[in-house]
Design a protein that fits this description.
2 copies of one chain form a homodimer. With about 230 residues, chain A is α/β, with parallel strands linked by helices. Helix content of chain A is about 25%, strand content about 25%. Chain A has one domain: Metallo-beta-lactamase, Chain A (4-Layer Sandwich), CATH 3.60.15.10. Chains A and B meet through strand 1, helix 1 and strand 14 of A and strand 1, helix 1 and strand 14 of B. Chains A, B: It comes from Duganella radicis.
Chain lengths: ~230, ~230
């Protein structure tokens, strides 16, 4: 089986957005849409003649604002988000093991993969996994703010994501090096941060990164917890 | 059916490269790879555990150099190119109606779609068409240099590409506006240059564009006619 999503990119925040098309070629979901691209993304749905069933978020982002609320308003889709992310206005609150159905046969399984944030999830669909900022290609998301935990991220990746079949295609939430897709097997064998590293060593590595505070975090997280809509809207 | 390629992007020349994976998940072809990304593209093949059967070109590009020769050397793939593009070192010279087979069941049909260049082709695979610089999303390639012809491009698009089923997903060779994929049906109904325009009107429009000469053309075309390898190599 070889079903891929449509992968879209935001140059400013290096964020990937994904459109997953059901096997009826009519119904779709979108994962992690970016506010400034709502017109681009609606145009893609129109060109491909797709009806949006769900807008999914992998977590409450700190580096960009979502268009989930706007797309929901404009398409009639439902917003489905991880229950642990404080995104109150979404009608579907997802927990580990939940299944999202769209089209006549398609289903997406929810994996709770905390670590980048406590609520972060990954989505599994037809041999693909969308890992948000939990697992990146040859890397992983930071764990030093917003309820992050290197120990939780290690357990999520090693215990849950690396347990998926090796051929599972892995689509990250960001990439900063022009990379687009990997596989679980490759990441399990070669990931620069996680392969051949104990949980303790990984904790030391992550604590030493000393990353700057994301510029937009104080604005973006509250905005994203409101699906990107103005508060009070 | 909903099989998509992996779509890769070159920011400098806004060029799309595509990896098409056969249904055995082992064999692949790559379309229009870009010289400066040969390592990125090899890494994608390695991560996805794919064996490259063919490197395909849609035409001899004027705005970037191909990595076709390099990828052929490093992977053992064959280079397959349009017969009318003067790319002599390629072992497979393609003509209209030819079929390229890879994996146990996959086949790509060659459509000769002259206009951007006299030799340009499009490739049809599993409900997708890769149109190179013939048809772009809501636009088309220029026709004012390198054996281009607005009349030929009009006939290629209206007569051949728009004759494909409406739901065919259309993947262009470039995009300059953050767009990624369209469909033949949408382009037939809405394309800003071609919809509701006669061949004569289209010729007037294209003649009036007055585009600057591509900066790299004098270097890129001869390089691409040698698969991007140094001459004499």
């Amino acid at each position: 089986m070889n079903i891929n999503p449509v992968q879209l990119f935001d140059v400013e925040s290096s964020t990937f957005t994904y459109i997953l098309v059901a096997d009826d070629n009519e119904s779709a979901v979108i994962i992690d849409p970016v506010e400034r691209h709502w017109e681009r993304d609606l145009a893609h749905l129109e060109r491909l003649d797709l009806k949006l069933a769900y807008v999914l978020e992998t977590h409450a982002h700190a580096d960009h604002v979502t268009s989930a609320g706007k797309l929901r308003e404009l398409t009639g889709a439902q917003a489905a988000v991880p229950s642990g992310c404080g995104i109150a206005p979404a009608e579907v609150q997802l927990n580990d093991g939940d299944v999202i159905r769209f089209g006549p046969h398609d289903q997406i399984e929810v994996l709770h993969t905390p670590g980048h944030t406590a609520g972060s999830v990954s989505y599994v669909w037809r041999g693909n996994v969308f890992t948000g900022d939990t697992l990146l290609i040859d890397g992983c998301g930071r764990t030093d703010f917003q309820s992050g935990s290197s120990a939780a991220l290690f357990d999520s990746v090693v215990g849950k994501l690396f347990a998926l079949p090796d051929a599972t295609r892995m689509w990250p939430g960001h990439d900063y090096k022009g990379q687009s897709v990997s596989t679980i097997g490759w990441e399990r064998r070669h990931n620069a941060r996680l392969t051949n590293r104990s949980k303790e060593d990984f904790g030391v590595l992550m604590a030493a990164l000393n990353l700057p505070k994301p510029k937009l975090i104080d604005m973006a997280v509250p905005a994203n917890q409101n699906l990107g809509l103005p508060h009070g809207a």
